[in-house]
Specification:
Blueprint: H1 25-34, H2 47-55, E1 78-82, H3 90-99, E2 105-109, H4 110-115, E3 137-139, H5 146-161, E4 183-184, E5 188-189, H6 194-208, H7 210-217
Parallel strand pairs: 1-2, 2-3
Antiparallel strand pairs: 4-5
The chain binds iron/sulfur cluster.
The site of iron/sulfur cluster has 12 residues, from α4.
């Protein structure tokens, strides 16, 4: 955009200097995406109230092109995980994440979403949504102030600014695999941990009943 008239490599004809803009593909691509990030419209707990404040007139994230909160994952670029992530809720969160098209981002808002928060030791709480889905930005606080969430959104914009169209995962040839949806039974099971769980179960069985285990192994 700037410097075209000064840089002879661009060879802008005389007289068109004020009307021709030169930039990189990455910059124009990221400029469009960073200013139209559509968050998904859902909240989990008290942090969601602060998120709602950011959407309202006083803080107004429409200034960032983010005001179109979408009630469908199919139309969302950003998942703001605003609140306590319970074991009952995480299968739905992972399913929604899988249903979001690329490019997609996740912001963990508050202590609960980032690491379990005050309920970390609770029997029913996941100690951080990043145990299941990749998080791009963490916003600390309990709850974070609206200003803190705005700062997190600006941090996300800076992250988008640094991405390159040649390296982003959504243009790679290999299709990205969906994250296995955790199963909630007596406790939460992450299906990616099944090989470890099965191995532990075999070892426990062997420790409890070595004779039967030896016979089974013969
Ligand atoms: S971090 Fe604090 S304010 Fe946010 S959901 Fe957890 S307990 Fe509520």
């Amino acid at each position: 955009m700037s410097g075209a008239r000064e840089d002879p490599a661009f060879n802008v004809p005389e007289g068109l200097g004020g009307q021709v803009a030169i930039t990189s593909l990455d910059r124009i691509y990221n400029w469009g995406r960073r200013n139209s990030v559509w968050p998904m419209m859902f909240g989990l707990a008290c942090c969601a109230i602060e998120m709602i404040c950011v959407a309202a007139s006083r803080y107004d994230f429409a200034r960032f092109g983010m005001e179109v909160m979408r009630p469908s994952p199919r139309q969302s670029d950003l998942m703001i995980v605003s609140g306590t992530v319970t074991k009952k809720m995480i299968p739905q969160i992972v399913r929604l994440y899988n249903q979001m098209p690329e490019p997609k981002y996740v912001l963990a808002m508050g202590a609960c979403a980032s690491g379990g928060g005050p309920f970390k030791e609770g029997y029913n709480v996941v100690s951080g949504v990043d145990k299941f889905i990749p998080v791009d930005v963490y916003v600390p606080g309990c709850p974070p102030t609206p200003q803190a969430l705005l700062n997190g959104l600006i941090t996300l914009q800076k992250k988008i600014d640094k991405q390159s169209i040649r390296k982003v995962r959504w243009y790679k040839k290999e299709a990205s695999e969906p994250i296995p949806i955790p199963v909630l039974g007596p406790d939460l099971v992450d299906l990616r941990d099944l090989p470890i769980i099965n191995k532990d179960a075999v070892e426990m069985e062997a420790a409890e009943d070595p004779v039967t285990s030896q016979e089974n192994n013969l």
